[in-house]
Amino acid sequence: MIPDERFDFPIERRERAPSPGLAAVLSVFVPGLGHVYAGRLGAGLAWFLATMFGYWAILVPGFPIHLASIWFAYEAARRFRAY
Length: 83
What we know:
Blueprint: H1 20-29, H2 33-37, H3 41-57, H4 59-82
Helix pairs in contact: 1-4, 3-4
């Protein structure tokens, strides 16, 4: 049986790539949420716990951890788009 070329086409499953900007904004409001949005659930939970511990301990370590969470969420979404 000869395959019909009309039906011989690759089926692509495209996932919508996360927006780096939206990932950063989500992390501003809830630390780690940008990572979850970018598909990194474990990293999101770790950033949330680390940031909350930093804010609980003293405000000074919490703020830099929160900023790092925002930056790394942006980078995670940007790297996801690159692949």
